[in-house]
Amino acid sequence: MDNGCAPCLPRAATRRPGTRRARAAWPLLLAPWLGASCGTALAQPAPPPVIAPQALALAQAQALAVDAARALAPPQARIVAEPGPLDPRLKLAPCERVEAYLPAGVPAWGPTRVGLRCAQGPVRWRVFVPLTVRVWAPGVVSAGALPAGAQITAAELRTGAVDWSLAGGAFARPAQLEGRVLMRPLAAGEALRPGDLQARQWFAAGDMVQVVAGGDGFTISTEAQAMSRGLEGQEVRVRTESGRVVVGRAVGDHRVALAL
User: CATH class for domain 201-258?
Assistant: First the structure.
């Protein structure tokens, strides 16, 4: 009898990784983690409990990713965690109980990963499940086509469904974009992202600015003179009244924030 693995896999599992049908076949693709081999599958069908723990672990991984994303998402956002393909070279020992966990430092949105570890078995192993987390919520989109260099008015914008996980997020209200200038053309219905807008100039070189620094439970401020123009979100050097030169970030109209 041929003990090769190919006959044991369902048709959907042999397709190119990343397709919808391939993702749906994950519980069967990873059945060998829990002690089922292709040879035994041909001779004797695996009982349902063999697949159930792994399927539960995958569901836990998706739920953990969704919960982490929801903590940063806009209210009433629809969050979807799409699993990606695992490394086909993985050879893991059988495991009776697989647990999902969130690795430290992984992003909550977009491409991320969730850990799976063997909590009960002869060999303790761990792997990472690739996921893509989408966060759908109302956001600002263009009401019609807009050219690069256009100064935006609220009448040219509307609210639509936006994936907030892409390109640094999105904007919640059209009023936030009044008077801003586009860096690139936009198609009708396209979401506006922070990177689509020209940086605002908050002050010019030589202007007096308010320098603000804060920490745990305190805030201090002083006046200083800008040594270069202050572009939104960019670093700028300023000279304090004592003559000391410090570096901060332009955060508002004639305002510079220092990091302590």
Answer: mainly beta
Q: For 149-195, how does the pLDDT look when each residue is reduced to its tens digit (9 = 90+)?
A: 999 999 999 999 999 999 788 999 999 899 999 999 999 999 999 88
**Residue 83 is inside which H or E element, if any?**
strand 78-83
Tell me the whole-structure pTM to 2 decimals. Answer: 0.62
What are the pLDDT digits (tens) for 188-238? 999 999 889 998 899 999 999 999 987 777 888 899 999 999 998 899 999
End-to-end CA distance of the chain: 70
Vertex 89: Cα angle to 84 and 92 (nearest 5): 95
Q: Helix, strand or coil for residue 257?
A: strand
Rounded to whole angstroms, how far apart are CA atoms 158 and 92?
A: 51
Class of domain 136-196: alpha beta
Q: How far apart are CA 30 and CA 259, in angstroms?
A: 48
